[in-house]
């Protein structure tokens, strides 16, 4: 019996190892093929499955650089920042500092004065699931004003004017992607914790996980990628100022896999908070939303995902809690179609 058990254990170890190798080989093949077809687009991918980490990368830090991209190369994760913000929100819920169904009225900074029709109407969860009905900043106009740093013209006054002048929530309860919603969530977190957003995200995510290459306001480092717009022109990394909770973070695949590992571990504070964010807070015929997360369900799988696009880079994060895997894809070009196609191909041929 002992010999049989030893043989079975060895067989399982070999089988698991082979399965992991097969995953990585297939993912690497997909990424390599994409790079060969698009040699100007650098890419870094991190994957975790049952706590085992795998990485692959192709391309250089920039068109002018000979330095190869690797798992430590810095990218803009842009709106993936929103799932970090929603995780902070869920941690505040677990800390009993806030409830998802609380109205925002008592949590906003004093400069915000809601008009009568908006009072006791918008919930915390409405902001986090993009259904508050509040007007948003006009990115099209901002890009025209400053294509390199479009949010540089957004100030505290810009935000308070948008909210205070709003007399009616025309599409309340309907999905409409919102930057201002996550900006307000960041300000609400600042109020309940009595600290800046930067301090909160450092103290509750970045430092506990030792994500030493995940940066916020200071990102002038040697291993930084150069982003490119869809036409191939170089783009600066964005400075997010007051809108930081919606897109501030710069990171790499190594650190984001560390974050995914914590998310998939139900025993960590971040993992417990992630489970709160995975509850469905919005649903229509097109989508299901958690707190900052898109939820995709078929007959066998439920996956959680969030994409991000800056002016010069694109990214996507996805995980399956039941099957215990997660993936992060980072591109140094703004190319939402490419990053979505890559995820679709990896999911359909490897993960599904």
UniProtKB/TrEMBL annotation:
SUPFAM superfamilies: beta-lactamase/transpeptidase-like. Residues 39-338 form the Beta-lactamase-related domain. Keywords: Signal. Pfam families: Beta-lactamase. Residues 1-20 form the signal peptide. It comes from the Bacteria. Gene3D superfamilies: DD-peptidase/beta-lactamase superfamily. Belongs to the beta-lactamase family. This is CubicO group peptidase, beta-lactamase class C family. It comes from Flavobacterium saccharophilum.
């Amino acid at each position: 019996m002992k010999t049989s058990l030893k043989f079975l254990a060895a067989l399982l170890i070999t089988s698991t190892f082979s399965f992991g190798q097969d995953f990585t080989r297939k993912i690497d093949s997909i990424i390599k093929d994409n790079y060969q077809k698009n040699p100007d687009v650098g890419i870094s991918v991190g994957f975790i499955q049952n706590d085992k980490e795998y990485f692959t990368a192709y391309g250089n830090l920039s068109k002018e650089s000979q330095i190869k991209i690797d798992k430590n190369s810095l990218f803009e994760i842009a709106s993936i920042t929103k799932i970090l913000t929603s995780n902070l929100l869920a941690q505040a819920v677990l800390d009993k500092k806030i409830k998802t169904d609380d109205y925002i009225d008592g949590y906003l900074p004093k400069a915000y004065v809601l008009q009568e029709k908006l009072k006791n109407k918008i919930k915390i969860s409405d902001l986090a699931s993009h259904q508050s009905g509040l007007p948003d900043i006009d990115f099209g106009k901002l890009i025209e004003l400053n294509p390199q740093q479009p949010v540089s013209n957004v100030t505290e006054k810009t935000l308070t004017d948008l909210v205070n002048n709003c007399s009616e929530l025309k599409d309340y309860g309907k999905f409409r992607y919102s930057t201002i919603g996550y900006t307000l969530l960041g300000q609400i977190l600042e109020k309940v914790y009595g600290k800046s957003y930067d301090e909160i995200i450092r103290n509750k995510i970045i430092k506990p996980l030792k994500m030493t290459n995940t940066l916020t306001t200071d990102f002038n480092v040697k291993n930084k990628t150069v982003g490119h717009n869809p036409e191939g022109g170089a783009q600066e990394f964005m400075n997010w100022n007051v809108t930081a909770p919606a897109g501030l973070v710069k990171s790499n695949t190594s650190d984001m896999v560390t974050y995914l590992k914590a998310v998939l571990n139900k025993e960590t504070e971040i993992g417990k908070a992630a489970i709160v964010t995975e509850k469905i807070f919005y649903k229509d015929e097109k989508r299901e939303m958690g707190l900052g997360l898109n939820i995709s369900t078929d007959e066998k799988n439920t996956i959680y995902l969030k994409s991000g696009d800056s002016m010069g880079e694109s990214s996507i994060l996805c995980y399956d809690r039941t099957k215990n895997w997660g993936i992060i894809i980072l591109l140094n070009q703004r190319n939402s179609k490419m990053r979505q196609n890559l995820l679709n191909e990896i999911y359909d041929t490897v993960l599904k």
